[in-house]
Amino acid sequence: MLDKMAFFIYVIRSGSISSAARRCNISVSAGSRWLQELESHFGTALCYRSNRLLEATHAGQTLFEEFSPLVDSAERITRKLEDYQSHEKGHIDIACTPVYANHFLMDKLRHYANDHPEVTFNINVTPWALDHASTSDLMISANASYQAIVKRFIASEKRANAMPIRRCGLPRLPE
Q: What SUPFAM superfamilies does this protein's entry cite (predicted)?
């Protein structure tokens, strides 16, 4: 029962059954079944869907508030005991915007994962990364630079007269 209650905490923190299932190393269908069993055990609904996320009902909020500190304590104890090991190991939840994920993050994580195979990642790539700031270990919000887009366009335009660019350089600000 404690595993199912911890799973519920992860569902509410992430707003997603699939994200919580990845965190607990179970299938999404098993996670859905765990939620149903937990609701059946307590005899009440614990969560409902809203806009983009799953949210706790009043009963679910009570469970979350009471049990969440225990999950945090268990995670803290686990990390302390894992510190006795000689290699890096663990799980990192990352929420980031598509711009950052596509241009920077994936390459960095690939190199890190090759060097540290015992570290796992859950990457939530979403334009609403700020919505997940409280439930992620790391949250990165980045937007495309208008200036870089303009420079790339002008530099790649084959029909443009290159003389003004050679004489004045690429524009620093869009006009």
A: Winged helix' DNA-binding domain
